[in-house]
């Protein structure tokens, strides 16, 4: 996730950050307000670990966010997956069933990508859709504000 995307998903991500990094307070999260560099700096200070370790842990949270978005919006996204990646078959879509690991594996196989490239394709796909709990309700239909 780039900095802008991270900030855009801040409300969904900050709860997961608090779960993973228990030393973060609500006040810390309010001050950070979605600024990834500030978050990394704060976590380095709180935990005394290096930047690379913190960034890896944040990437894990981001990946979990993407996986959850796919699962939650699966019915709405099936057709869009096919539009984006024409090499995916109907059988592939049925096997994936909203599971991000299965999607990434299919992208690796069908597009001849390594795992990192397939993950990047998946992340870019989710980011391009601009999904949010405020815009898409439980029915999967978009709500106009």
Q: What labels describe this entry?
A:
disordered C terminus, elongated, 2 domains, mainly alpha, Protein Yjbj, Chain: A, 145 residues
Notes on the structure:
The protein has 145 residues and is mainly α. The chain folds into two domains: 1-72, Orthogonal Bundle (Protein Yjbj, Chain: A); 74-145, YjbJ (Protein Yjbj, Chain: A, Orthogonal Bundle), CATH 1.10.1470. It has nine helices and no strands. It has helices spanning 3-8, 10-20, 26-32, 36-47, 51-72, 74-84, 90-96, 100-111, 115-129. The chain starts with a helix and ends in a 16-residue tail after the last helix. Residues 133-145 have low confidence and may be disordered.
CATH architecture of the largest domain: Orthogonal Bundle
Low-confidence stretches: 133-145
Cα-atom Rg, whole angstroms? 17 Å
Proportion in β-strands: under 5%
Overall morphology? elongated
Total helical elements: 9
The CATH C-level class name of the largest domain = Mainly Alpha
- How far apart lie the N and C ends? 26 Å
**How many strands?**
0
Task: Report the sheet with the most strands, covering strand number, pairing sense and barrel closure.
Answer: none
CATH topology-level name of the largest domain: Protein Yjbj, Chain: A
CATH superfamily of the largest domain: YjbJ
Order of helices and strands: HHHHHHHHH
Give the assembly state of these chains: single chain
Count of discrete structural domains: 2
Kindly name the structural category.
mainly alpha
